[in-house]
Amino acid sequence: MLLGARWGSQRSRGARVWRLLAALALLLSPAHTLAQSASPAAPGNLDALVQRVRPAVVTILAQNTEVRRGSRDPKPVSRTHTRVGSGVAIAPSQILTTASVVLRAERVRVRTANGLEADAQIIGVDPVFNVALLRVPDLRLPALPFSSGRGGRIGDWVLTVGSSYRFQLTESVGTISAIYPEPRLSLLQLTNTVAPGNSGAAAVNARGELLGIVQGELGSPEIHPSLDSERRPSGISFVLPAEMVNRVVQALQRDGRLRHGYLGVTTSGASVPSESERGLDIPIGAMVESVVPGGPAAKVGLQRGDLIVGFEGERVEYPGQLARWVAATPPGTSIGLVWVRRDLQKVGSAVLGDSPDPMPAWAMNSPISSAPSSDAGDRRDSSQGHGRIADIERQIRDLNRQLEQLKGQSTRSRRE
To answer: Among 26, 41, 125, 387, which has the highest number of CB atoms less than 10 A from its own CB?
Structure first.
């Protein structure tokens, strides 16, 4: 929602909010940057590496039945929907994939690179990190180890191997072009091409170690009768790093779930009119709609009507960001918050509780593309529907705009 009566809609009030947010920016870390680096050449043994990785990568077919009623014929018609994704073996009978591929599936089948098929059991799903772990008792696959030592760096060479909607494995060679270090939810951006069906694909380094899994396939469309109707590959891909994937996998193997942080608030979107572009509303934070009595938010002093604008040194623009960052933080962690109350800045630290919901409802709606309005997941603000990948794409556009402005200022300075 836009800022209501508590904040006012006048431009004078909006200007005060802008000045306050500018002051708050001093408390927060700098914006993410898209660092540039020379791309290293692919190793000479690329063919050997591909041949070693391909047997560990599988196609995943997730099926569920939908019942529909036609507009003319009221008789219900059952139809099987199949989502196609990728997976990678991390143990002889364990396969790692994304939650967006198998969520709500009634049956999951796995097809290997050499054409074998078997039913898979879901060990656990975590929609917050978009990770799922499968068990395939009837298969023995060559597993890929997680990367050891330092994580990926900008400019590092990366090979991605995944499945396509034609059930064929596809490979792409590229580099890490950017790193988005969100609180507890870092992502790597690759120059590798993403083919439809690559969600859950393996991203490996030159040693054949798993750097992470591809998150870039956002949709979950069914298989079309005509293969000509497939979507074309995209020139951008996002990867959840191995160190984060490994944490989730260990929890799923041990408990079948990952514990999530809990703040105890519901929030909605807030915005002010842009001072430079007419008709454009700028998101400025997560407006507190309610506070759970006795919860972490109540203990730190948050109240209804407060505007949360900072989390662990990062600027909060949408409710979805706050909900993801809270859920991705382990319970018991002390987190720093910045909020605004009646144009006054407030700062505090809250110790997150343990979310009562093993899988937050907002994340279940769509692991990547839905935007939650609270860490409890009990309501959503459809007017502020921004998913995590959409947030990153927006950041890219904003950064490009800022770079153009900086270039223009630099040119003017040289002329002067």
So the answer is: 125
3-class DSSP assignment, residue 130 = coil
Number of domains in the chain: 3
pLDDT computed for residue 274 by the predictor: 76
Q: How far apart are CA 273 and CA 280, in angstroms?
A: 6
User: CA–CA separation, 112 vs 110, rounded Å?
Assistant: 7
pTM over 0.85: no
Over residues 189-198, the mean pLDDT reads 86
Q: What is the residue whose two structure tokens read 């069914």? A: 222
Sign of CA dihedral 397, 399, 405, 408: negative
Highest mean pLDDT, choosing among 23-32, 45-54, 249-258, 351-360? 249-258
Torsion of CA 103, 263, 351, 128, to 10 degrees: 20
Residue 100 lies in a domain: yes
Tokens 């003017």 locate to 412
Is 39 inside any structural domain? no
Each residue's pLDDT tens digit, 154-176: 989 999 999 876 778 889 999 99
pLDDT bracket for residue 63 (50, 70, 90): very high
> What is the average pLDDT score of the chain?
78
Kindly report, residue by residue over 269-303, the tens digit of the pLDDT: 988 887 777 778 888 899 999 999 999 999 999 99
**Do 242 and 174 have their domain in common?**
yes
H or E element that contains 220: none
Same domain assignment for residues 97 and 16: no
CB atoms within 10 A of CB 392: 18
- Which pair of structure tokens corresponds to residue 96? 């790692």
Q: Are 157 and 172 in contact (CB under 8 A)?
A: no
pLDDT of 309 over the 90 cut: yes
355 and 399 in a single domain? The answer is no
Q: Looking at residue 271, which CATH number applies to its domain?
A: 2.30.42.10
What is the dihedral sign for C-alpha 90, 193, 175, 220? negative
Closest to 201 in 3D by CA, of 293, 70, 101, 94: 101
Distance CA 113, CA 162 (A): 10
pLDDT at residue 374, rounded to an integer: 42
For residue 140, give Cα distances in angstroms to 55, 90, 193.
Answer: 11, 11, 29
Strand ranges for 274-357 from DSSP E? 281-291, 307-311, 314-315, 334-341, 344-351, 353-354
Q: Which amino acid is at 319?
A: P
Question: Could you tell me the residue range of the domain that residue 106 belongs to?
Answer: 46-68+77-254
